[in-house]
Amino acid sequence: MIYFVGAGPGAEDLITVRGRELIEQAGMIIYAGSLVNREHLKYAPEGCEIFDSASMTLEQVIEAMEDGNRRGLDIVRLHTGDSSIYGAVREQMDMLDELSIEYEVVPGVSSFCGAAASLKAEYTLPGVSQTVIITRMAGRTPVPGKEDIALLAEHRATMVIFLSAGLLRPLTEKLIEGGYSKESPAAIVYKATWPDEKVLRCTVGTLAETAEKNGISKTALIIVGDFLGDKYQRSKLYHPAFSHEFRP
Ligand code: SAH
């Protein structure tokens, strides 16, 4: 069996119990070495075969899985955060389907959740935003035109921007084109939940200089929205004047 396991955002104890138990029983682990904390590997049993996928192609990853599977090993494919977000996991699952190799997916704590925790923030504040947009700037992977950041910015919803820490000047231009002002609140969370995490609050207009001053050009989330400000409405759910199914 092959298990796609979300390793969580960084801290070694932010993997799920299920994920950790699978590591403890794995005969082979293929981990995304560029972002997965290597501390997870110390829970692997003796003799576990370990591959860093950073230097492998999709075909080589599948070949290793096929080989391990043939030898009856339980295989953990360890992805950073949760594999459903920029995880390049679908293509692996499709190739395993073709080979009739079974797999399961174990969710993980995505870095966007880790970043909210580090910011001690709530993305969905009543009266501010009830929507979280997860997106990225186009890089070598194109982004469909309808999802251009300037268009998404028009919603003024909470925005969490992945894979774009090296593109902060064009990102800022797009946010402003979409209607944000230079003063709109923003944050950069670098290596959320890792020991060397940095949480930097700034504004849309100061994103690039804040990153430059702190030497950040990768492994960061750019977070934008008025939820980072201090105005919001309290929740109806916990309001004394509001009754519901569990509190008449
Ligand atoms: N599947 C992952 C995302 C992989 S894409 C997840 O759910 O988090 C890689 C990008 O994720 C990085 O470029 C960065 O933008 C973001 N990222 C991953 N881990 C991070 C962390 N600990 N702190 C901040 N950003 C992180």
UniProtKB/TrEMBL annotation:
Keywords: Cobalamin biosynthesis, Methyltransferase, S-adenosyl-L-methionine, Transferase. The keyword Methyltransferase applies. It is an enzyme of class 2 (transferase). This is Precorrin-4 C(11)-methyltransferase. GO terms for molecular function: precorrin-4 C11-methyltransferase activity. Its EC number is 2.1.1.133. Belongs to the precorrin methyltransferase family. Pathway: Cofactor biosynthesis; adenosylcobalamin biosynthesis. One of its GO terms (biological process) is cobalamin biosynthetic process. The keyword S-adenosyl-L-methionine applies. Transmembrane segments: none annotated. InterPro entries: 4pyrrol_Mease (IPR000878), 4pyrrol_Methylase_sf (IPR035996), 4pyrrole_Mease_sub1 (IPR014777), 4pyrrole_Mease_sub2 (IPR014776), Cbl_synth_CobM/CibF (IPR006362), Siro_Cobalamin_biosynth (IPR050161), Uropor_MeTrfase_CS (IPR003043). PROSITE patterns: SUMT_1. CDD domains: Precorrin-4_C11-MT (cd11641). Pfam families: TP_methylase (PF00590).
